């Protein structure tokens, strides 16, 4: 099976290739088949991408916000019209089941384009009087921004970065993850179709070295990365060298706290969503599930029953709820964590194996896995696994669980399940996390800021908060005279 790709890159409004670039094979994770082979960007491609972005940005920034917004909203409409085709592409590239990609990937990208398309006209400065004088501010674009994506939500990540960047009058060069290079190319095509000038949103392929070259180019004003903490450290250091703006959306090991008074079925549903959706490859997943001791046995019993019912298999079958992981390397890494969980003494309640799925013998599948009896010092409770592995930990008091939840270098997200409204708000006030959910998990509407604290990053995606990450304020003082000078 092959996926038709016009060219490896999309630069200056058109597909573009340079076969000199290192080959990047793209595999369908459900079967291991190569579905496309792209090329990494050569220096000539990188140059063309940045130069065309510089040019397009001037033209774009001169438009009124309402005109920029119109293009973004049109792009959102086209994305929705093509949702099925984009979802199938995303499923081939990531292995995530169509049941998910149909509702969570291009659909969420379209939401961001629509949201920032509607906001574009409202992006403006303020005015303030100072006696007879006054001052006003202008909210100006940064210039050319670089976006670098992870492989778990390729078109969503590209759209979440492009939408606020373009709404503010910037241009963008986007480098998808080398694991999932396909769908960002489609976003680039759609933006041109919607009326964006050629060069406004370029997509170039490559590994970390291509990302590194983009970041160190003096014409680049900002970099927004979605990736792991170790990559974040490198990209942040590279950006610091050129004093560039940064947004860092990094990894997590988020706590999900279930108090004894919670609606237990809802809490189990939230914990499953926050551990098994996208085969557990979600940065904000609540992978440390703290359950109050009094309800712990009942919680684990029902959790195991409901986990057993998960349908795993052919991602293109819409009845299938769980597909493979993105690659065999990721599957092996996650299997290594499962083995460590066993040897460090956690109780394996269910899963833990590579399932045998007829016709998909070479796929990167892992059964949804639940460990109970996990303690804070175990590796599976400390490190980001990025696979379908849930750790259940017991707790006795609110103070204790909040301290334990916060005892991590990460701070991306947190969840609380309880019927006690006072306790819910008290708990989220004390939790060190950029995004918290009460009686819900992993819902990320475009109108709510999303991002992390501590090692999970800084800057926010989505909502009006993202405007701060893609614009800068110019202050203009207007003297109405006479000039009060001592000379
Ligand atoms: P990764 O860090 O390996 O790679 C991310 C991107 O960075 C890729 O495009 C890669 O090519 C690029 N890259 C690698 N080295 C680079 C360098 N030196 N300079 C510039 N670019 C470089 O991450 P991944 O494995 O693709 O994704 C999984 C990670 O992403 C997890 O840690 C996950 O938590 C995180 N993530 C975070 C969010 C969020 O919003 N906070 C969302 C999704 C994923």
From TrEMBL:
Catalytic activities: betaine aldehyde + NADP(+) + H2O = glycine betaine + NADPH + 2 H(+); betaine aldehyde + NAD(+) + H2O = glycine betaine + NADH + 2 H(+)
Modified residues (Cysteine sulfenic acid (-SOH)): 283
Cofactor binding annotation: Binds 2 potassium ions per subunit.
Residues at which K(+) 1 binds: 26, 93
Gene Ontology MF terms in the entry: betaine-aldehyde dehydrogenase (NAD+) activity; metal ion binding
Keyword Protein transport in record: no
Domain Aldehyde dehydrogenase: 22-476
Residues annotated as binding NAD(+): 149-151, 175-178, 251, 283, 384
Chain positions recorded as K(+) 2 binding sites: 243, 454, 457
Gene3D superfamilies: Aldehyde Dehydrogenase, Chain A, domain 1 (3.40.605.10), Aldehyde Dehydrogenase, Chain A, domain 2 (3.40.309.10)
Record's subunit section: Dimer of dimers.
The protein's role, per its UniProt record: Involved in the biosynthesis of the osmoprotectant glycine betaine. Catalyzes the irreversible oxidation of betaine aldehyde to the corresponding acid.
Family in the record: Belongs to the aldehyde dehydrogenase family.
The protein's name in its UniProt record: Betaine aldehyde dehydrogenase
Organism listed in the record: Oricola cellulosilytica
């Amino acid at each position: 099976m092959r996926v038709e790709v016009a060219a490896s890159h999309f630069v200056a409004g058109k597909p573009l290739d340079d076969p000199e670039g290192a080959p990047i094979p793209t595999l369908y994770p459900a079967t291991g088949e190569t579905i496309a082979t792209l090329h990494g960007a050569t220096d000539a491609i990188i140059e063309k991408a940045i130069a065309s972005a510089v040019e397009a940005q001037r033209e774009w920034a001169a438009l009124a916000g309402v005109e920029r917004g119109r293009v973004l909203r049109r792009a959102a409409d086209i994305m929705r019209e093509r949702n099925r085709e984009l979802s199938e592409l995303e499923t081939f590239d990531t292995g995530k089941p169509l049941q998910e990609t149909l509702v969570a990937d291009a659909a969420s990208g379209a939401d961001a384009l629509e949201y920032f398309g509607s906001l574009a006209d409202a992006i403006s400065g303020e005015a303030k009087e100072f006696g007879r004088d006054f001052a006003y501010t202008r909210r100006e674009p940064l210039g050319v921004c670089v976006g670098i994506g992870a492989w778990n939500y390729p078109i969503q990540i590209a759209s979440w970065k492009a939408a606020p960047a373009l709404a503010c009058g910037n241009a963008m060069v986007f480098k998808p993850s080398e694991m999932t290079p396909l769908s960002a190319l489609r976003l680039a095509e759609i933006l041109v179709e919607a009326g964006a000038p050629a060069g406004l949103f370029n997509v170039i392929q490559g590994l970390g070295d291509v990302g590194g070259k983009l970041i160190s180019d003096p014409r680049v004003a900002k970099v927004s990365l979605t990736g792991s903490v170790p990559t974040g450290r490198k990209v942040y250091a590279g950006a610091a060298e050129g004093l560039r703006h940064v947004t860092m959306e990094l990894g997590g090991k988020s706590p999900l706290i279930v108090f004894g008074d919670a609606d237990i079925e809802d809490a189990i549903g939230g914990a499953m969503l926050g551990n098994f959706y996208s085969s557990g490859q979600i940065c904000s997943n609540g992978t440390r599930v703290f359950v109050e001791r009094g309800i712990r046995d009942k919680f684990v019993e029902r959790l195991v029953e409901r986990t057993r019912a998960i349908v795993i298999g052919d991602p293109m079958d819409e009845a299938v709820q769980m597909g493979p992981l993105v690659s065999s390397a990721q599957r092996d890494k996650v299997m290594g964590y499962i083995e460590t969980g066993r040897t460090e003494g956690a109780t394996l309640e269910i899963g833990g194996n590579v399932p045998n799925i007829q016709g998909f013998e070479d796929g990167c599948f892992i059964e949804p896995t639940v460990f109970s009896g996990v303690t804070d010092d175990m590796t599976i409770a400390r490190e980001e696994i990025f696979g379908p592995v849930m750790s259940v930990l017991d707790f006795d008091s609110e103070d204790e669980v909040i301290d334990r939840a916060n005892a991590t270098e990460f701070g991306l997200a947190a969840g609380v399940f309880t019927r006690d409204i006072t306790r819910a708000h008290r708990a989220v006030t004390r939790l060190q996390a950029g995004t918290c959910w009460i009686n819900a998990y992993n819902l990320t509407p475009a109108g709510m800021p999303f991002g992390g604290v501590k090692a999970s990053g800084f800057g926010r995606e989505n909502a009006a908060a993202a405007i701060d990450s893609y614009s800068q304020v110019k202050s203009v003082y207007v003297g109405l005279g006479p000039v009060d000078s001592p000379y």
